[in-house]
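#random but structural
TW: two for the price of one
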Amino acid sequence: DGTDLTAKPKRSFYAARDLYKYRHQYPNFKDLRYQNDLCNLRFYKNKIPFKPDGVYIEEVLNKWKGDYEKLEHNHTYIQWLFPLREQGLNFYAKELTTYEIEEFKKTKEAIRRFLLAYKMMLEFFGIKLIDKTGNVARATNWQERFQHLNESQHNYLRITRILKSLGELGYESFKSPLVKFILQEALVEDTIPNIKQSALEYFVYTIRDRRERRKLLRFAQQHYTPSEHFIWGPPRKQKSEGSKTNKKPASPVSIHSSYISKHKKSKEPKNTSVSGSSAGKTTEERKVELTKNREENDQDEQGMNCDALKENNSEKNSDTDTGQPSKSEEIPDTSDRKEDASHSKKDDENLNNDCGNHLGTTEKDLCDTENSSHNTSVDLQDNLDKDTLSGGTATKTKDELKS
């Protein structure tokens, strides 16, 4: 019993589908079983009795009122008192039609008796109607009737039918006050705790206005215990955001680029200091330094190209046999690929460590491995800064851009 009480409730697929059809796709039948003879309207006009008991509406409202034993144990009258556009347990009762609903709303005699039937059933549950807007409160005999309502759960089906019928016959505004009252008694006052599952599964979702449903669900969520077992309504935003971050982690390439951007930012003060010191020099000194830097870069590139050509000529035969590329430009590309592969491997390891548990160590390793590869780019950036300050424009060859 203890495990049943603490078990988390589950949503009913049948209830969700049934009430969705009630709000959006009514009627629930394709073909009428009977011809449209307006039997529900004629019953409320006291012209025909309900079947199979053969009792007229006036007798029900006058003699059955207050007879709780008869109202409890008779199961055939409720389908006639609160008709719907769907079949109930009493197969003698007929479904409402759209034409019959319009005629019912125009008949004052039928509307007056319908409200009297609603008051009679509310009193049977221990509730009373206090105004014309649908507000309800406890009746004088509420303690006895609430105890009975908490134990006889077949009456929860009757309440669902009553709420549906109120919406069909022009009293949609009466639903929300009744459901709010039931939720208050079940969740806050704890007078009818057994009804809370049906109230959240059925009663709330008979209301067609989406905003009213959300108000009731928010009220129920505030008072529901335990709070983690509240399963109605949309999921919490924190859980949804956490699932999104788990499903879509940051890519290793983006992490790698962020590390490199941080590394470059650490070098920026050096660039600014160099550019600031060069700004204090004269124009002639800056021109001499630029020409010297260009000559040194050209000599370095020529030396690198010569070494690459010598290696290419010495391994020409092996290249032709193994099918390896013979161009000197592809040699640094393969090293770049290996370097990128090593960095992506490190980034994958960082992702497995929750993306940042050892962020300082990883960033330090990346800076150490990237120092040699970024020295040339930093020198070129310094030259570009110097050239911009002097007002000149430098044209780079394709080999310089690749290096």
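TW: number two ↓
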Amino acid sequence: MRLQCEVEVISRLLPTCGLRGRGRGTRALLSLGRPGGCGGGGVYLMVCTARDRVGARYKVQENIERFFTRFVEEGKATVRLREPAVDVCLSKANASNLKTFLSAVRLAHQGTDAGALPLSTLVPAKTSEVEKPKAKMIITSRRDYPLTKNFPYSLEHLQASYCKLARIDTRVLCLKKLRKLDLSHNHIKQLPATIGDLVCLQELDLHDNHLESFSWALCNSTLQKSLQFLDLSQNKIKALPIQFCQLRELVNLKLDDNELIRLPFKIGQLDRLRFLSAARNKLPFLPSDFRKLCLENLDLFGNPFEQPNPLVPNIQLKIPLTLLECAARATVNSRIPYGCHLLPSHLCEDLEVAKTCQCGGACLSSFIQITVTMNLHHVAHTVVLVDNMGGTEAPIICYFCSLDCYSQFLDRYLQSNG
């Protein structure tokens, strides 16, 4: 029987010499068996580590003074031996496997017939069995990229930059413990939807690639619950899908040096977002929902923002309102539940992008649209200048559901401007 865990062997004689144990374990493989198999000799507990793969052996039968199992559910236990006077401290073990292993050791101590015990052959451990699982791998050139062997499944941080990758390696998508994935400075053109299967992924860096889009399927994946950092800067993205704002755990979003002509319509839903940079894109204005953001740092430098003119509205009003518009407004305003099991999918999509009037009401395809100036300090503590003239203002879209709402706004605007 074998058990992988961390082990620290502490001599109980050390305190009498004025010495103390290190206080931390090392990766080890524990084996319960007989030398040379089950042919003869007593039952031993063997501890193999990376430094000592041959292993240290301790007799088990009638040699255990006490078991300490108070924290066995946490994968911790201690076996106190009489000779030599040491404590074998186990940690970071699988709780179920640890219980089974300790039961076998207890039976061996009591002298149970060896035929009834799950004994192993006491042989030196393999390097892979005692090495600490690799959690981080950094690759910064094509020649160092592994082509003939798999990535360690224990990886939590993988960087593969400057490797001229044209697509994401399917082997990477099998690393279920991955928390940080850096594929910057490659030639990736498309993202597979299976990235969403990386349930622990918190940081995704795709800086300096050839991406032209960000899949809506990724926005509907488990990334909704895990992704906190996303770098899509220096790509060729023109727009992000409506579903992008479902990535509500995002804290840091980088969109610099793309070809964006608009930001996500419902960007205000990203209520955890604190750092946003979309410098050097092609943004003519900001979406209405931008007002809802609460940022620490904002960078929109180098965008060709249009000069707003509230007196020149874009009128899309349909009078009288269509039955569809009335029903849609009532559904959104009254927060009536809906879904594809109740309504056609295209109607659900329309309701998801309902615009909000200054009065708080909703409008879909019948509205008045204008652009007004907003000081970016209203949504961010620190603002990078929008242009070389020292400005921190940008145009933002406003919607009105009726002529009355627009008239009220116009009266306030004219009064404030004399």
